[in-house]
Amino acid sequence: MSTLNHRRADAVVTVLDAHGRPLADTDVVVAQESHAFLFGNIGFDFVALANQEGEAGERPAFGGASVGSAAALADLWLDVFNSATLPFYWGGFERVRGRPDTARLLTAARWFADRGVAVKGHPLAWHTVCAPWLLDLTTDEIADVQDARIRREVADFAGVIDTWDVINEVVIMPVFDKEPNGLTRLAWERGRIPTIRLAFDAARQTNPSATLLLNDFDMSTAYECLIEGVLEAGIQVDAIGLQSHMHQGYWGEEKTLRILDRFARFGLPLHLTETTLLSGDLMPAHIEDLNDHQVSSWPSTPEGEARQADELERHYRTLVGHPAVQAATYWGITDEGAWLGAPAGLVRADGTPKPAYDALRRLVKDEWWQGPTTVRTSSEGRVPVSGFRGTYSVDGTPVELATDGEVVVRLGG
């Protein structure tokens, strides 16, 4: 069992008063405020809520909870998660060319940021849910508008969204045959790596300080080979995105660790960008494309919920225990309007938390969390602070616990 020392820091905090003098022999309250590790979930459910729009029963454009349910879900969401993924699927974001949904998404991004949540955009380039009007363009024109679209979004959201899944599922992109789209044609004619370079160059040049991900569901050696080619081509990737939609069953610790170790060899942070575990019947193993499994009803069951809670806890312990993993995003908080209708949410359609929600909250906010503790400063105004890396407060004044060593905090300053 991992000791999780790679997640922790031991620091000595020197506490100064408002005048800059050491606060000696005084009781202070030390409390954790946030995790450095990114515990994420999608924020699709809250776009309409943030914009104060829609009827009570109206569904958001990309599935998820109805507008009327979102307010109650927000408290559950914010009590566990500190990172949100917002939808930038081109076919929904810019249904009509030249009319992007910038204002609504920016309002939603700020809604999360105001609540201390880091925000990621997903994705800037993908062959699915692609803008249909691209089909009328030549390949060169598609490249030009894709470049312009990336630069526009990265510029418009800079400072609020500075992390992006730049391009999604490129392993399959050139040979994708489920529906005609402009990006598959671009990747087929120009190649995977030039298509990736186009997307990353546009994002990097627009916001050099952004965190840019390459993301895929394909955990085979094909993705490893693609990453090798991308890095050898000199394209700067900041993190590797790994999807883990386990609709056909939990991977298990052994398989998960093998995957993490294989992709950690590139020396880049790993983000588990899309994770799901079911609390109902599993999808049949013979299904190759998860989207092909269509059923009229897919309920959550008591037995499935117990299994989901056990597997989710084991999965998160595995991820947090691996030093290369920097972020883990669960794909959906609720079964209401869930992707593919699957019972993958952490909250039932009626708004009540499943055991899996309670299990994750217990890890994030109990076992891996330091609650308020009263400690007395030394004669030099020093107190030891030890815990999971993140933001702490000393008598309400924030202090970052990022590495072992010395930290100074000035109260009232």
From TrEMBL:
Its EC number is 3.2.1.8. It comes from the Bacteria. GO terms for biological process: xylan catabolic process. It catalyses: Endohydrolysis of (1->4)-beta-D-xylosidic linkages in xylans. InterPro entries: GH, GH10, GH10_dom. Pfam families: Glyco_hydro_10. This is Beta-xylanase. It comes from Cellulomonas xylanilytica.
